[in-house]
Structures are given as structure tokens and as C-alpha cells.
């Protein structure tokens, strides 16, 4: 859970650091054994993540994606999973 909270905090800090962006969509739900959040800003930044605690109650499985436009106009989308075997991103440009 700590991994998920840190990742969410980093993404939200990144998103809110851009003062010229308006929040178009924001949703979060955090429970003891699962969580979900969605964030969309007016500057083409989007992020969503969800996770759940495995049946053993010790390991989290998290999946999500975020996307943004670079300063040179390229669109980047990162989809990922994270589990007890590590962080597994796939980047599309």
C-alpha cells in the first residue's frame, strides 16, 4: 500500500505543480483492501490507477497508466503493473 500511496502522491504533485492546468476530472476511492483513482487535467495530463491486496493479505497488485504531452509536442503514455515481482512499465510514444 505504501508503494501505491507514494506513486499517487508523486503523480498528484506533478499534476498540481503546473499552475496553468485546470482539473477536469478527479476521483479517488481508498478501502482497506483496494483503491482506485482517476485524474485528468486540461493540459493533456491524465492518470489512473487501481490496486488490490492479494488473497495472502501481504502483496499488492497495482495497475495503471498516465499520459502527457512533452514540451516538444510528443504524446507519451505509460501503462504499468506493479506486484511482488516489481514495476513493469510499457511506454508508448
Annotate the secondary structure layout.
Layout: H1 2-17, E1 23-30, E2 34-41, E3 46-53, E4 60-69, E5 75-83, E6 86-92
Antiparallel strand pairs: 1-2, 2-3, 3-4, 4-5, 5-6
Structure description:
The chain has 93 residues and is an alpha+beta fold. It has one domain. It has 1 helix and 6 strands. It has a 6-stranded antiparallel β-sheet with strand order 1-2-3-4-5-6, covered by helices on one side. The relative contact order is 0.17. The model has no long low-confidence stretch (mean pLDDT 83). One of its GO terms (molecular function) is structural constituent of cuticle. InterPro entries: CHIT_BIND_RR_consensus, Insect_cuticle.
What percent of residues adopt helix (DSSP H or I)?
A: 10-25%
Query: Given the C-alpha coordinates, what overall shape results?
Result: flat
Alpha-carbon Rg, integer: 14 Å
Helical stretch tally: 1
Q: How many β strands by DSSP?
A: 6
Instruction: Summarize the main sheet.
Output: 6 strands, antiparallel
The percentage of residues in β strands lies in over 45%
Q: From the helix content, strand content and strand pairing, which structural class follows?
A: alpha+beta
Number of domains: 1
Give me the side-by-side strand order of the main sheet. 1-2-3-4-5-6
Distance between the termini: 29 Å
What is the average of the pLDDT values? 83
Q: Extract low-pLDDT stretches.
A: none
The succession of helices and strands, N to C, reads: HEEEEEE
